[in-house]
Amino acid sequence: MTLSGKTIAITGAGRGLGAALAIAAADRHMKPVLLGRNERGLLEIAGLIEARSGRRPDCVICDLADLASVASAVAKLAILAPDLDILVNSGSQWTGGAFEAQTDEQIASVINSTVSGTIALTRRLLPLLSTRPAADIHTVVSMSGLPYARMRGSSVPFVAAKAAQNGFVQALTEELIGSPIRVTSIHPGIIEDVLPTDDTWNEERNASDMLSDRNVVEAILYILDQPANVAIRSLVIERARTEFLS
């Protein structure tokens, strides 16, 4: 399946991995729609994409921790991208530190953005995706969602939320088998943030170096670019000298 011309909605697209994926998708002649809660961040990434491609992507404010914001974002997406082919659930709030130091507000934000908001957004976009001959729902879960991975700086709420998100992906995969929608996921380890616009994007890394956004973005695009008869349901990606499994 060629990705050129595909419309792809990406949550968390105002920074980090989501932003890197949006820029790389545009470089592949896809039509990204940027979703996120920070308007300034979205507009900055949209400007970078326009400067590289000459095409300015649409931006939609979507706070995954706020279900009203999710509903509003979907209503706008239905107008801006009725030909939506791919949803990438990349947005998620993160918190680190000891469990007893977490506030109720932090816990709620992490759980709501990673679990409730992601599930609600996906459910609301199913009717759009179902109209396409072939579509994808891809979720960036993180190794923190795997039962055998160590915490490595993540908080208890974040690990719990990612475990729930992983369960959501597995259940949705089963429910949508036989439909034109593929459900896939990726579980990256710790990532160094770098954008395709940075000089460091093309730097070769050694075995001891940590993952960069480039490594994960290329893996996501590889998964999405598979032929219609192929589904890479789940992929764990960690640096060669792993920290999560030791």
From TrEMBL:
Top-level taxon of the source organism: Bacteria
Protein name stated in the entry = Oxidoreductase
Which CDD domains does the entry mention?
SDR_c
Q: Which organism is it from?
A: Devosia yakushimensis
Q: Which UniProt keywords apply?
A: Oxidoreductase
Please give the InterPro entries that the UniProt record associates with this protein: NAD(P)-bd_dom_sf (IPR036291), SDR_fam (IPR002347)
Pfam families assigned to the protein according to its UniProt record, in alphabetical order: adh_short
Keyword Oxidoreductase attributed? yes
Family affiliation: Belongs to the short-chain dehydrogenases/reductases (SDR) family.
